[in-house]
Design brief:
- By secondary structure, this protein is an alpha/beta fold.
- Strands 2-1-3-4-5 form a five-stranded parallel beta sheet.
- The radius of gyration is 17 Å and the shape is globular.
């Protein structure tokens, strides 16, 4: 296969996967994040591997790229970004606990957890989702494939229907950028931080 053909096929797979993501789930995600912003709730994002990078990217984008002078900010955190706590928890308590142990100190009722996972079957992701639900946080799954076990644990499962890791991860980043553009415009227009 030529590089040109590979490029064409990949773009076709990505375009098809994006077209199959249920719009209502993405809209629900946007409304959930808006509620968290308006009500001063915390948003936590997590993932493994490439999804870890997506979690960090989303937290940075929503925290920084949605603001203007004199407006409040998203209270948003990636649970992947502190290497010291991640490795300490993995070493002492097992990798399946690296996210749930962080949430134990932080998550409160009404907060939002966004779990980013292509397969939806990582033990540490599922454990964190169960814990967040037990604390009355809203749980969103940014998932791929068929959603895996994480789909059933998600209040809002946003599933990229592809079994190609690259396509799923690219689609998750595209959804991130859609959300950032949406919030940049909506917050500037509605000014919900003004009382």
């Amino acid at each position: 296969m030529t590089m040109g053909r590979q490029m064409d096929e990949y773009r076709e797979r990505l375009a098809h996967a994006l077209s199959e993501i249920p719009r209502e789930q993405v809209i629900a995600l946007g409304e959930t994040l808006f509620r968290a912003y308006r009500d001063g709730k915390q948003v936590f994002i997590l993932g493994n591997g490439g999804s870890s990078s997506t979690a960090s990217h989303m937290a940075a984008d929503l925290a920084k790229n949605t603001i203007a002078p004199n407006m409040k900010r998203f209270r948003i955190f990636s649970l992947n970004d502190n290497a010291a706590i991640m490795t300490a928890l993995a070493n002492d308590l097992g990798y399946e606990n690296v996210f749930v142990e962080q949430l134990t100190n932080l998550v409160q009722a009404g907060d939002v957890l966004i779990a980013v996972s292509a397969s939806g079957n990582s033990a540490n992701v599922l454990k964190a989702m169960r814990y967040a639900r037990s604390r009355s946080a809203e749980v969103v799954g940014l998932l791929g494939f068929d959603g895996g076990a994480a789909a059933a644990l998600s209040d809002i499962p946003v599933i990229v229907p592809s079994e190609h890791y690259g396509v799923v991860e690219d689609a998750h980043l595209i959804l991130n950028h859609i959300l950032v553009d949406y919030f940049r415009e909506r917050l500037a227009q509605e000014r919900p931080w003004v009382v």
